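Bug #2210: token dump truncated for Gamma-tubulin complex component?
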Amino acid sequence: MSLLGYTGDLIIDRRDDNHLLLSEKTPISDECTFTLAPDISFIDPSDRQLIEKLIALGFYYRELDRFTSKSRNLSWIRSATAYSNAKPLGNVVSDVSKVEKPSVYRRALANGIVEVLSVYRSAVLHIEQLLLSETKPILATVTQGLNKFFSILPTLYELILKIERDDIRGGQLLNLLYKRCHCGVPELQTCMQRLLWHAHQVMYNQLASWMVYGILQDQHGEFFIRRQEDRDVENSSSNPDISDKLARMSTNDASLSDWHLGFHPYWDMLPEYIPMRVAESILFAGKAVRVLRNPSPSFQSGDAVYHQIPKSFQKIHGLAGRFHFQREPLINSGMGEDLLPQNEADKIEAMLLDLKESSEFHKRSFECAVDSIQAIAASHLWQLVVVRADLNGHLKALKDYFLLAKGDFFQCFLEESRQLMRLPPRQSTAEADLMVPFQLAALKTIGEEDKYFSKVSLRMPSYGITVRPSPLDVSRANPSADGSSSASSEMSLDGWDGLALEYSVDWPLHLFFTQEVLSKYLRVFQYLLRLKRTQMELEKLWASVMHQYHRDFAKRKKDRTKSPTTQQIPQRSRPMWRVREHMAFLIRNLQFYIQVDVIESQWNILQQHIQDSHDFTALVGFHQEYLSALISQTFLDIGSVSRILDSIMKLCLQFCWNLENQDNFSNTAELEHIAEEFNKKSNSLYTILRSSRLAGSQRAPFLRRFLLRLNLNSFFEATARGVLNVVRPRPTLPVLNQQ
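Reproduced locally. Full output below:
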């Protein structure tokens, strides 16, 4: 009886002296409390010592049995039901956790311990029957029959004692069992492997739920993948714009919110024998399955039908997006099954089932299975994003509008908005003011076949605009020869730098075009738009002055006037136009370098990767490399270079606006200052770009072409070395058309 945990008058429990009633809530004792009664004197000391050793097994059995009863107790379900009937659903989990902290992993461990205890009870029963049927030495027979349990039960007792003391659960419990499996006692090793097998059953069930159905079954926070808590989402959305976008995204489709913020690895519960890379693969596979099994209703009924309606209707709908056609819903479309076919789901489940039924855990087999499942999920996600959602078309649209590949559209837009951009932007109406030239440019250059233009919208943030008041009275500004209003060089040149584009991304492309990705596109767009605006102003300046000169020449020819001053105008204007030509030369070459050597070459590399790759994760990596190369090779990641380029563009605009301003024609000192600053900045730019640090980077091949174009006749190199920068009288910039 004592070997099965029951004490009496012969073998007593020392805790009975303290009148303690043992229950499930009674903590496990730190030491064995079973002992022979002290008033028994007829037992020899040697026998007493052996009996003390034997009855310790009974103590271990009782404590293990109490642990299993407590861990397998399902009364917490009734508690949760009672709380759910009395309180709102949101408070159920927190209230129950105050009462009880259940653990499915401990329950699985308890099931394994029950198996061991049943074998132990059978051994005790067999010994009892053997002693009743035959006359044998009692202590020797009992010791021999229970010999293997002298190493198993004490170890299990130490195990549950550590679990209770440190509150070990979930992945931490798996890690503890995995370590205990490495021992030199065969019986104990077999026992620990069996307990680990039981605990792994829970993990495999959670993996199957997550990787086959996209459902996270983890009521008690024991899995190494966890749903993001609400407070984490609030902290991560401190930016108002991002939080608004996430709010809209989660409202439109919860799966998109799940992909970006819904789930994350919980490293505290990750067993040490599962690498972090494998955990990331499991996280990705589950999120991919969630997306594939829960397609957006608009994608199901809208985009699927979209490819079935006549092409002429597609053109009308793609052009403006203003007309909504009554579409018939797909009947028995089975979109969820199409995105993840049932045979593929069965294949994933079969791989996990093979791992689950294996008696031993093999790390290599586990990692190979996870990699295979990730490959299946990534392949079907690639099919969804690249083929069904037309990823390449959207990439082309981003290239057209964010990387200014549609040069005719932006040329037209900048020409239409040129007069408006000469004035400081008004914070309240700047965006509305720009919509008119934006729409005019679209009508002139965007064809009906471009179904992606409706996803592009113009934005002018109302915050961060610093507008310096112009010293000129804009209402009294004199029109120049080409009809544009004059502006002051003191006008804020950064007011329109906040001009931005937004791209409407539909399901499931949010998985690919994250907010981080779109922000990188926007950064490059704003840089390229400033560059194109500068190039256009330099060209307009030359065209304006040449138009004025030819008009004056025709007038003089008609009047047959031959004044000496008239013949000197081209000669006296050469220093000024030489400066303009140097500016245009640098801006043109920089623009050609970015558009051709950088954007087009990187675009071709990305297209090759898209054709060769059928894996979503690899495709995301290639696209990140594409964006990183764009930012790197356009020098946006080097603060010193980007600041110099911004300064050069600002000087070019100041130069153009000063010359076009009739009131400043006589102010040659400021023009000389601009020319001098431009020379310094351009020389500094050339010196930095030729540095050894940049020569060894990924920018090197195309950067050398850019430098070759700039320094074709060694002008930049000689200037940078100071050959042309010696102290000399600055050329006087004459004034044209002084009449």
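Output looks complete on our side. The mean pLDDT is 75. Marking as cannot-reproduce; reopen if the truncation happens again.
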